[in-house]
Amino acid sequence: ARNGAVPILRSIEAHKTNAVFLNNAARALSKMTVHPTSSRPLVKRGGVAVILQSMQANPTRKAILAIYIRALTNMLYTEHRTSEELGKNNGFQIVQKLVNQFPDYQPLQSEFRGFEKATKLGSSRFRPGVYQESKVRQNLDTSTLRFLGAGTVCKKYHVNGKAKKKVLKVNDNCTLLLFEHTDASRAPKQLNMKSIKNVVKGAQAPGMDKCNPNNAWVIISVDPNGREHRLGMECKTNLEMEKWVNGLHNIMSILGTGHESNE
Fold this sequence. Notes:
Blueprint: H1 5-14, H2 19-32, H3 36-44, H4 47-57, H5 62-78, H6 82-88, H7 91-99, H8 106-121, H9 135-139, H10 142-150, E1 152-157, E2 163-170, E3 176-181, E4 189-192, E5 196-201, E6 216-222, E7 228-234, H11 238-255
Helix pairs in contact: 1-4, 2-5, 4-5, 4-7, 5-8, 7-8
């Protein structure tokens, strides 16, 4: 499925108004996008824009529109860059305008409700039709932005002492901290930057007994219920640890969240 991303997108562009082909292609996309390993290359290769263009080229084919919307909804849940791509391409307004043509066609209305919910719960929230460079990107220095965006391999510690390697990075608009699997087999776990209240050096979280304390640090966050969570991390080097701690402190300062200290 991963290797089929480019051919299927090119075929959709080539058969712009072929109803039979587009129906089959839309169904294929709706199945592929359930899996992060398929959604990732689709989004990377411009899949969101291709789907939106195809929807606009076939505004009266409500059944095809419904299947396309299902594919976009799946992509929102399985690839964090989907929301950003929708924002750049005026996606929400395009979809909403097409759906509003058929208020009595329940399959389409049902798919749109799911799409609407996914945009609100999406990994990168955006304002419909408006893409704005984030406040963090505008104020963070280039070298720090490059380091945090490229990511590094770190150990993430569980309270039971087990450690798993993750690719730690921030998303494109610096609103989320992403914990990607090293083999990209599943969608990354995410932590909203605004929930991070502090970042401290050292092994100050449960389960970090076997880590190298010189390269260890802890992310302190608060969930919606007000409960504090300590997430133990370990970088390969002390320099990487310093860059992560300082970089996240800079983001917290820009956002006006948390407090900076090294307890």
